[in-house]
Amino acid sequence: MNDVVAALEAAGLEVRADAGTRGMYASDASLYRILPIAVVRPRHADEVAAALAVARETGVPLTSRGAGTSVAGNAVGRGIVLDFSRHLNRVLAVDPEARTAVVEPGTVHAVLQKAATPHGVRFGPDPSTHPRCTIGGMIGNNACGSRSLAYGRTSDNVAGLELLTAAGERLVTGYDEAGKPFARGAGPVVAAARAVLQRHLATARTEFDRFGRQVSGYAAHHLLPERFDLTQALVGSEGTLAVITQATVKLVVDAPVRVVVVLGFPDIVAAGEAAPAVVAHGPTSCEGLDSRLLDVLRARRGPGAVPALPRGGAWLFVELAGDDAGEVESRARRLAGDGIGADALVVTDPAVQARLWRIREDGAGLAGRAPSDRPAWPGWEDAAVPPGQLGAYLARFDELVATYKLTSAPFGHFGDGCMHVRLDFPLDAPDGTKVLRDFLTDAARLVGEFGGSLSGEHGDGRARSELLPHMYSADAIALFGGIKRAFDPGNVLNPGVLVDPDPVDADVRPAGRFPLEALALAYPHDGGDLAQAVHRCTGVGKCRADNSAAGDVMCPSYLATREEKDSTRGRARVLQEVVRGELAWSDPSVHDSLDLCLSCKGCASDCPTGIDMATYKSEVLHQTYRDRRRPRSHYTLGRLPRWARLAGRMPRLANLGVRLPVLGPFLLWLAGVDRRRSVPAFARRPFRRTFRPATGGGTPVVLFADSFSDAFSPEVAEATVRVLRAAGYEPRLPSGSVCCGLTWITTGQLDAAKQILARTVAALAPDARAGVPIVGIEPSCTAVLRSDIHELLPGDEDAAAVAGAVRTLAELLAQTPGWTPPDLSGTEIVAQPHCHHHAVLGWTADADLLQAGGAKVRRLAGCCGLAGNFGVEIGHYEVSVAVAGQQLLPALDAAPDAVVLADGFSCRTQVADLRHRPAVHLAQLLDRGLPGD
Question: Which of 1, 8, 168, 887 is the most core-located residue (most Cβ within 10 A)?
Fold first, then answer.
């Protein structure tokens, strides 16, 4: 290993060989875990050649990797992993007239679309991972996506490739002006490939290209002498034949009008049977799913997560497209009225269409939790059959699943005959991998019986390559071996895939049990098992995308650094190494991966699988520093409410101390605060000292006056009191001093946090049990009382009662009979919801309230970047500002006269610090509109 790393470094390559990086890259989005020797991030094609030379000379494998979203194990390997996504990720040219683009292999699909769209063209294939998957990865797998009925597979959309063979020879493929395929360079390889086909002509002509989604194996029919199209033959070869350094792809003109028809059916079998009749209407897309997937979505995100659908237990989402709105709508109405389904709905609103497609795009992540509420795994996730056989196949497949006592939530490209599914294999059981092997074998036999393909778009990888004999003859398998040896006689490129495959049940990442003792948090949604919690991450990589268009937060640190270690997935992979016992809690790699986690909880709501990295980070900090000396900021910022109470006794002195020329900077350093940060002033009169209950007869409500509102922003708490009273409530404070323990939680001081929260629950529980609402002011503290309370005080009935009584101000007002918001018409608002508000509490009530008041609101996605103690700590300033620059700062600069609405104290502090603008809490905005103001 050291020799390989040394050789790579001597070649001047960017190499990562630390334990954390190797752990991150040991998995993709599949079941498999294979530790590489090193990860190389090439900056240009010459460095790809240099890494390939080291692999040949040292005799270690080389695996190409894009976004790491492969669900079949195509992007993991035991030797050198080339990460193309870090540097080789540019769109080099767009030619609108020729309708082509030239890209590097690490180019993200969405980046290509962004470059092409202004020219009125786009890349046709659009897999559900399009915000983060790379073009090189799509070429490797021959990806298709939901609109393949219109645009075909990736192989139909590639105009040329530049590659390196295993021997390091440059190979260029493409088409001449007459459309005839050519191959330049690597003469011996090309000749050997031609010779192989001569020995298997009958097989190549009869066993391949039988239907559109036959993706498994090599595309040997493209090597027939009457075709010999190396461009198409190499697409879908999963990095086993050559290494792509550049690609020319075809672009298409996108139809401007889209209408979606949703057809309802009694069950998924009926939906599958109906798909060919739907395809006869000429749709661009025909996607199927059933109630099992929607039930998972509703359980995760509430009943409002699913738009209104036609009657039924299964549905086809059908998209029709064209140039003329009237013509497309007419086609949609004909389809809806054709009697194909039990019920139909025509959707013309683009916003509703987007919600429907988001369900489908999040399918792989949502299906990561089975209907049994157990983890569901890939492995048999994209088989395809001829479309006319789909209904019968789905019925038999459900029978097979039931035979193994598994559960699933199928969905997929029904118009193409392709079904996606994840299954709750009992991988934590002693015989778990045997069940996996037996099921995959029986499933492969079933697909072979229907004349189908083990893979319809994801490739075979490590999950299915061993099973190819159930689909192909012995002569076809021999043909694959001959093709591999022609291109890669030394078996350097991605060995274990397609030819001489690894066993399907080898190197299974989640196999076995990984019990951890003395955990501080309860993990109630994962049976108390941190290993199960961190293995929620299926690797689909949504955290590597900019999800702001959907209003999401995840993952601000990755967007700031573009480093895998700073993504939710990268962190989850490192923590999987911890639960396996490969890395200690205190390992520098663990803390390096978690250092830039803002604890924003964006992943808790936005990750389709429900990863909650903020919670896991708290556990790591607790385990690392339990009974040990902590970082300075843990004693200062981590115990801020305690210091704030002390400062509240002499606020002028406290404020003076941090502003004195010499003493101030020293105190900030001592507290672990970056000197570039301004420190909010302590209020001269904390809210709790000045609050006086009224004697009126309003409906009682408990006001949870958190430490931030009390010590720094009493004006917010005072405005909340006035708004509540105007709405007919009489707020009162809990008896004694209460605190949610948030700062202790985020710094991993969990024993203290439990004690603090238990005292608070004791103070709040009598009112909660009496049905008195508890209204929070600060979103992060309110979120603790609603969510984190279950992690810290599991099984505590009083804690459950408190959690159930907690309301945001907007939620309470929305439930108040007769209450209407003040007139906000003419008010332009830039709204920055606190991340915990978005992720835990939900901002819908706030949005509805503002809309009812007539305000013009621009709701920002993403995080403000301050995130409690994160943005003020030494070492975090640059990332904090970069995160603010993703959404917040551009919005503020674009609307200099708008009201800035930010309920979070940290959000308001960030706005004041970076733009010197005031920001208001919702209570303050409403208070302004009260009569007499």
Answer: 8
Distance CA 190, CA 19 (A): 40
Q: What is the per-residue pLDDT for 370?
A: 85
Contact assessment for residue 37 and residue 79, using Cβ atoms and an 8 Å cutoff: yes
Contact residues for 465 (Cβ-Cβ < 8 A; gap 6+): 496, 497, 498, 499, 501, 502, 504
Cis peptide bond prior to 864, omega within 30° of 0: no
The conformation of residue 839, written as its DSSP 8-state character, comes to I
Q: What is the mean pLDDT of residues 846-866?
A: 96
Lookup result for tokens 């501080």:
520
Contact 54, 11 (CB under 8 A): yes
How open is the CA angle 120-245-95, to the nearest 5 degrees?
A: 20
- Average pLDDT over every residue of 516-532: 92
735 is written with which tokens? 């008896």
The two structure tokens encoding residue 90:
């540019």
Chain centre distance of CA 902: 25
Q: Can you give the pTM of this predicted structure?
A: 0.93
Q: Return the H-helix or E-strand segment holding 95.
A: strand 91-95
Q: What is the pLDDT of residues 435-492, one digit of tens each?
A: 999 999 999 999 999 999 999 999 999 999 999 999 999 999 999 999 999 999 999 9
* 750's tokens: 């969990």
Long-range contacts of 445-448 (CB under 8 A, 24+ apart): 445/470, 446/393, 446/396, 446/397, 446/400, 447/383, 447/385, 447/393, 447/471
- pLDDT > 90 fraction of the chain, expressed in percent and rounded: 87
Among 499, 420, 505, residue whose Cα is nearest residue 457: 420
Please spell the DSSP secondary structure of 767-828, one letter per residue: HHHTT--EEESSHHHHHIIIIIHHHHSTT-HHHHHHHHHEE-HHHHHHTSTT------TT-E
Answer whether 379's CB lies under 8 Å from 504's CB.
Answer: yes
DSSP 8-state code for residue 215: -
How far is residue 87's CA from residue 307's CA, in Å, rounded to a whole number?
Answer: 40
Among the listed residues 601, 595, 877, 617, the one whose alpha carbon sits nearest the alpha carbon of residue 749: 617
Which whole number is the average pLDDT over 724-753? 95
Residue 421 is given by DSSP the state: -
Q: Are 13 and 42 in contact (CB under 8 A)?
A: yes
Q: Which residues of 620-642 are buried (b: 16+ CB within 10 A; e: fewer)?
A: bbbbbbeeeeeebbbbbbbbbbb
pLDDT confidence bin for 360, thresholds 50/70/90: confident
Q: How confident is the model at residue 374 (pLDDT cuts 50, 70, 90)?
A: confident
Question: What's the full length of the chain, in residues?
Answer: 933
What is the Cβ-side half-sphere exposure of residue 288, based on CA atoms within 13 angstroms? 33
d(CA 685, CA 693): 17
Quickly list DSSP for 118-137. Answer: GGT-B-S-B-TTTTT-BHHH
Q: Is the torsion defined by CA of 891, 893, 896, 900 positive or negative? A: positive
Measure the CA–CA gap between 178 and 176, rounded to whole angstroms: 5
At 408 the three-state DSSP class reads strand
Q: What are phi and psi of 531, to 5 degrees?
A: -60, -45
Q: For 116-131, how does the pLDDT look when each residue is reduced to its tens digit (9 = 90+)?
A: 999 999 999 999 888 9
pLDDT tens for 87-102 read 999 999 999 999 999 9
Helices (H), 199-258: 201-206, 230-234
pLDDT of residue 932: 65
